[in-house]
């Protein structure tokens, strides 16, 4: 495991905070990002970490919710041959309960992508955390100029924290500082 400098990162104007490596840059410093998203990239590795606030999907059960979101992402991106590699059980997230309404989390892993779904039931919000780790960089990709095309160098070989560990750390340190972010009813 690498020893990488990490820090507390404010999300959504500081209403949420989490910890992840400083090598990830805030995309909103470069281009416009939708208000319901916080996007961070490591341009030297073509990796990204995305935090997204979504309306609670009542039609999706807690069991397999991260898998549902991962499959939805694959459909949106026309990911041919997408395979779900792993999914977790539902885990209660006691530090994220609001008004005594429990919050739960599930995770799912696909090729090149890790997804976590934090279900903040007390404020009817699904928080989707997505970490992308490229295996192969297409020569036509915008990032090919910066990192080169072809096989990506594994994080372990470049002294960087693995993306599976980046998302685990961001989830274990995820904290809601201001529940008013979710509306006046929060």
From TrEMBL:
Organism: Arabidopsis arenosa (Sand rock-cress)
Record protein name field: Ran guanine nucleotide release factor
Family affiliation: Belongs to the MOG1 family.
GO molecular function terms noted in the UniProt entry: guanyl-nucleotide exchange factor activity; small GTPase binding
PANTHER family registered for this protein in UniProt: RAN GUANINE NUCLEOTIDE RELEASE FACTOR
GO cellular component: nucleus
Domain of life (superkingdom): Eukaryota
GO BP term (any one): protein import into nucleus
InterPro entries assigned: Mog1, Mog1/PsbP_a/b/a-sand
């Amino acid at each position: 495991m690498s020893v990488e400098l990490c820090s507390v990162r404010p999300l959504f104007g500081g209403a949420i905070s989490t910890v992840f490596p400083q090598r990830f840059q805030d995309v909103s410093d470069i281009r416009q990002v939708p208000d319901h998203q916080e996007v961070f990239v490591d341009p030297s590795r073509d990796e990204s970490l995305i935090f997204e606030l979504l309306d609670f999907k009542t039609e999706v059960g807690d069991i397999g919710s991260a898998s549902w979101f991962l499959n939805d992402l694959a459909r949106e991106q026309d990911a041919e041959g997408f395979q779900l590699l792993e999914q977790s059980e539902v885990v209660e997230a006691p530090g994220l309960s609001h008004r005594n309404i429990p919050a739960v989390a599930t995770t799912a892993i696909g090729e090149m992508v890790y997804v976590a779904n934090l279900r903040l039931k007390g404020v009817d919000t699904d928080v989707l955390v997505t970490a992308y780790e490229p295996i192969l960089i297409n020569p036509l990709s915008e990032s090919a100029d910066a990192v080169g095309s072809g096989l990506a160098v594994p994080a372990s070989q470049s002294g960087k924290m693995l993306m599976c560990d980046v998302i685990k750390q961001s989830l274990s340190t995820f904290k809601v500082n201001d529940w008013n972010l979710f509306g006046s009813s929060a």
